[in-house]
Specification:
about 475 residues; alpha+beta; D-Maltodextrin-Binding Protein, domain 2; 2 domains; cell membrane; TAT_signal; NrtA/CpmA_ABC-bd_dom
């Protein structure tokens, strides 16, 4: 079966070792060399659904698609689940809903369950048994800023800008704003969002300091060249149009909405910042998984089936997915706006639409597998920008990642689908939970999730081992 957005990952046929590791993890009896597997019972292959009526939350973004498809194509129902999908006003409301039990689970920022577990912001025991997608975000700048930078961009033979575009093009713009006594403001969706870290990564790679978080600066603007603030995703275009911000990082369809409204231009996609980066997760409370293992496994099976449907047959189902997502109870944006990034294309300007088959990946490249190394990357960025104020050894990063990201639960569900012939054995990775050394970053730096402190030491801008930040600056070796 031809899949959508494949880009160089080999498929593995052997899953016997994984089945064994899942069984051991479910019994709490296996330890690897880096950390202890948390003692949460894995979903059993034959477990009955204990809680059939569920309410799941989401934010109006195209990457909530696996939940909508699982509902609309009957995958939840076929697993014996009666699921209500409920849009939430913002990421904080969504997080509080899961923690408080008003929601049984949610489409969630990958950083949220990690931050809750380490006690940054709200303290709670959340887990991420499934990754929802790869890629899907972009950074958009206002027409004013685009007009200030576009004349300096390298052009291809057809006259269009060469991508990726470095944030270094913003340096003279930021300088101009400073000379006028004005801050250069950009928006992102939440302090522990992928968008925050992607925007910071892009800016820092271009030589601009996006600022640090300190105990006295929860907005993360200490020493900043660019001031970042929080805006809920659907409000990004209006906030840009009002002139409150000069750019933003957000998921679709809110970059394409700026193109359609002719108020901004996407300048870089997150896939260009970090090729095939992990995006949202499906998150539930740890005690939910313990109390309802059969329900947890049923939810995961339904969502995995939806992810496979979204990427099947070269994207043949994407047009139907766009129609579903355009409904007001889901994303509620025009079909044309959603399709502009969801169907293998991405529009930068009205006359600049390019092939982007991997802009949204839901199933291919093992997109659903919750890799420990993905979780550790988020934790390194929290440390880099001061949300984690003190040093920790590598073991600490491993322990936090394994407390939250639960590949054992994912594998228990995925392997049940393999046994039924619903998905192929080659669609399940053979891995120790780490992706291995990764490149594809805009700054050329490689990432190895097994060496988080060594990774942090590679950055010119950002906190390293032994360093702390205060209003007066960065101190330490």
């Amino acid at each position: 079966m031809t899949k959508f957005g494949q880009s160089g990952f080999s498929r593995r046929m052997v899953v016997g070792a994984l089945l064994a590791s899942v069984a051991l993890a479910g019994c709490g009896g296996s330890k690897d060399e880096t950390s202890t597997q948390p003692g949460v019972t894995a979903a059993s292959a034959g477990g009955a659904v204990e809680k059939p009526v569920l309410k799941l939350g989401f934010i109006k973004l195209t990457d909530m698609a696996p939940l909508a498809i699982a509902k609309e194509k009957g995958f939840f129902a076929e697993e014996g689940l009666n699921v209500t999908l409920e849009p939430q006003a913002n990421w904080k409301v969504l997080l509080d809903g899961v923690i408080g039990g008003q929601l049984d689970g949610a489409h969630m920022l990958a950083g949220q369950p990690l931050a809750a577990t380490i006690g940054y912001g709200t303290k709670a025991d959340l887990i991420a048994p499934l990754s929802l997608d790869l890629n899907g975000n972009a950074i958009t700048v206002s027409n004013k800023v685009w007009d200030m930078v576009k004349g300096d961009l390298q052009r291809s033979a057809d006259g269009k800008p060469v991508h990726p575009i470095s944030a270094s093009v913003l340096k003279p713009v930021v300088t101009s704003f400073k000379q006028q006594g004005k801050p250069f403001n950009m928006g992102m969706v939440f302090p522990v969002s992928t968008h925050n870290y992607e925007l910071r990564y892009w800016l820092a790679a271009g030589g601009l300091n996006p600022g640090f978080y300190t105990p006295g600066d929860i907005k993360g603007t200490t020493l900043a060249d660019v001031q970042l603030s929080v805006t809920p995703p659907p409000q990004m275009p209006a906030t840009l149009e009002a002139g409150t911000i000069e750019g933003y990082c957000v998921g679709e369809p809110w970059n394409q909405a700026a193109v359609q409204k002719k108020i901004g231009v996407p300048i870089v996609t997150d896939d260009q910042i970090w090729h095939n980066n992990p995006e949202k997760v499906f998150s539930i409370r740890k005690d939910f998984a313990e109390k309802y293992p059969g329900t947890t496994s049923a939810m995961l099976r339904a969502i995995i089936r939806a992810q496979e449907w979204l990427d099947a047959d070269g994207g043949a189902n994407r047009k139907e997915a766009v129609k579903i997502l355009s409904q007001p109870n889901y994303v509620g944006a025009d079909e044309a706006v959603i399709a502009a990034s969801m169907t293998g294309k991405f529009t930068y300007e009205a006359d600049d639409t390019r092939d982007a088959p991997g802009f949204n990946i839901f199933f291919d490249n093992y997109a659903g597998y919750p890799y420990y190394s993905d979780a550790i990357w988020y934790l390194t960025q929290m440390r880099r920008w001061g949300q984690i104020p003190a040093d920790h050894d590598d073991q600490w990063y491993f322990d936090q990642a394994k407390a939250v990201y639960r590949p054992d639960l994912y594998l228990a569900a995925a392997n049940q689908l393999v046994e039924k012939g619903t998905i192929s054995a080659e669609d399940v990775p053979e891995t120790d939970g780490f992706r291995g050394e990764q490149d594809g970053f805009i700054d050329g730096i490689t990432y190895d999730g097994k060496q988080p402190n060594a990774y942090l030491a590679k950055f010119k801008i950002g906190l390293k081992k032994g360093q702390k930040v205060s209003a007066s600056g960065v101190t330490g070796s």
